[in-house]
Specification:
This protein has 75 residues and is α+β, with helices and mostly antiparallel strands. It is 40% helix and 25% strand. Strands 1-3-2 form a 3-stranded antiparallel beta sheet. α2 crosses α3.
């Protein structure tokens, strides 16, 4: 296990935060909200990118850290 935050916890967080309008998040923000490691959350986000059917998750911008764009999928 990467940290005290599980992949399932990160997935649930994304589903709860997603809306019809895009939300932009950083792994460190999610980790802070979940009391976890930003590195672990970033790895889970990469893994979940292709696994989520109800939420669209994509890498949006890369500067000092990756910004993730999250929104409800249109399906």
């Amino acid at each position: 296990m990467l940290s005290n935050v599980s992949r399932r916890t990160v997935r649930a967080y994304l589903v709860n935060r997603a809306g019809t309008e895009p939300t932009y998040l950083h792994a460190r923000e999610i980790a802070s909200d979940l009391d976890g490691s930003p590195k672990a959350v970033a790895q889970y986000l990469s893994q979940l990118q292709d696994d989520l059917s109800d939420v669209s998750l994509e890498q949006w911008e890369r500067s000092k850290s990756i910004t993730w764009r999250v929104e409800v999928s249109e399906s």
